[in-house]
Amino acid sequence: MVVQWTQADAEMAKQSERVLTQLNTHGFEAYWVGGCVRDELLGRAVDDMDITTSASPEQVMALFEDCIPTGLQHGTVTVRAGGYYFEVTTFRTESDYRDNRRPAAVQFVQDIKEDLQRRDFTMNALAMDVNGTLVDPFGGQTDIKQELVRCVGLAVERFGEDALRMLRCVRFASVFNFRIAYNTWKGFVHQRELLQHIAMERVRTEMVKMMAGPHPLKGLELLFRSRALEYVKAPVDSSRFNKDLLAGLEHLSGDHVLLRWTCLLLAGGYNREEADKLLRNWTFSNEQRSRITGVLQVEQLVTAFVEQDEEDNKLRESWIESELACGAQAADDWLMLQEELPKRWRDLSEQVEARLAKVQAFAAGWSRSIPVHEIKELEITGEQVLQLVDRKGGPWLGQLMKHLLRETAVGNITNQHEALRAEVRRVAADDQA
Ligand code: ATP
Ligand code: MG
Question: What mean pLDDT do residues 252-264 have?
């Protein structure tokens, strides 16, 4: 191998090189292109390697046994080599963008430079051949050195063709901690309204990548400053965010990206219902949505009970009730989040703040002491309760089971059949009285 890839899996590099060589042997030009070349120069892990070639899709298909016609009309064939998949795309230009988001037509061309010209940013318009020779017609290497995101060509036009590029621009600036070239920024602000044409799913994908990166605050600042999020299909008002609270976001590791989103929503003053609606519109999955809103629900319950409860034991019981209502994951997440938020951001009285501090200090221990989280873990079934009290089922039964769960969870009764029976009898007798 001539080219020493330092950021790519060695076997993937070798297999992709064989694809390039095979194309070259048959008289076609072939290059690694785009993100993989950029990431290698940046010293960032290369996850996949895209290939661009002068061969037509049919010619590519004829040369490789194991391939999938992924998007023939766009010139893309996926070639499988040694268990790796490589997208091999014929040199092409794009034209006639519809709705500011997708080209209605592509034309295959013979010059790599024309292909690179259709790409979004100079750092993504880089190609490298098997000898390691770079094709860099737009100064991508210089921009990478200067840490700049710069459009290929006129930013206003390029963002006008495909509005998603504006969010990719912010994402790259945020993840790489790059600045945005002046004209690129101006083009972005000029074209921000076009973001209304982009499906929220694609908006979310870019935002999620940005939020998982090492500098999400930088990206958020760019979004707030450009007011871009006010123009997407499910808009968000930049002015509602508490900037101090947002600072907590980067202390949460990128592995906890959902917790970062929770922090963002908390900083935006979203309650559980508002957050649920927003996340739905932003096409988050049910699972992601409930993970995030669960924490906001804990926040609501805790801030309410610290206003009321004075005694330590009452605080403990209320915490446990909150955990039963929202789930252990949400309680855990809430606690983890507290560690990263600035102190006293809630604007509570001295006294209430002290109670909240107590909750934060002891809650983990209280949580560990909870013997049961769900009704089905109780050593008594609904059926057994019915037999015991000799009553017909009804809503009362659910309430009673919840009561048993609560009493067991806070430790007032043990999770033993006899103890639970005794409590059922006691409650039944109370009811009769
Ligand atoms: P990453 O994979 O890290 O998200 P990437 O730059 O590789 O970043 P891909 O979506 O994998 O992004 O696209 C591969 C290449 O295709 C890019 O490097 C760029 O050259 C080109 N490209 C992708 N999306 C666009 C777009 N919206 N407009 C123009 N060119 C694009
Ligand atoms: Mg990529």
Answer: 91
Q: Which of the listed residues 353, 368, 383 is the one where a domain comes to its end?
A: 368
Tell me if 165 CB under 6 Å of ligand 1: yes
Q: What is the pTM of this model?
A: 0.92
* Amino acid present at 101: R
pLDDT digits (tens, 9 = 90+) for 18-59: 999 999 999 999 999 999 999 999 999 999 999 999 999 999
Judge if 132 and 151 occupy the same domain: no
**Ligand 1: distance of its center to the CA of 119 in Å?**
7
Distances in whole angstroms, Cα of residue 333 to Cα of each of 195, 265, 278, 323, 347: 33, 14, 20, 11, 22
For the four alpha carbons of 178, 184, 190 and 196, in that order, the dihedral sign comes to negative
- Does residue 224 sit in the same domain as residue 314? no
First to last CA, the chain: 88
pLDDT tens-digit profile of 145-172? Answer: 999 999 999 999 999 999 999 999 999 9
Element (H, E) at 71: strand 67-71
| Cβ pair 277, 235 in contact under 8 A | no
Distance CA 65, CA 79 (A): 8
Instruction: State phi, psi for 393 to the nearest 5 degrees.
Output: -65, 165
Task: Find out whether the beta carbon of 216 lies less than 6 Å from any atom of ligand 1.
Answer: no
Interval 317-354: pLDDT, tens: 999 999 999 999 999 999 999 999 988 899 899 999 99
Q: Give the domain range for residue 87.
A: 1-139
Does residue 87 have its Cβ closer than 6 Å to ligand 1? Answer: no
- The verdict on the CB of residue 94 being under 6 Å from ligand 1 is no
Residue 433, pLDDT > 70, answer no
Out of 49, 168, 169, mutate this one to test ligand 1's pocket (max ligand atoms within 8 Å of CB): namely: 168
Kindly state whether residues 364 and 381 are assigned to the same domain. no
Residue 105 pairs in a beta bridge with: 95
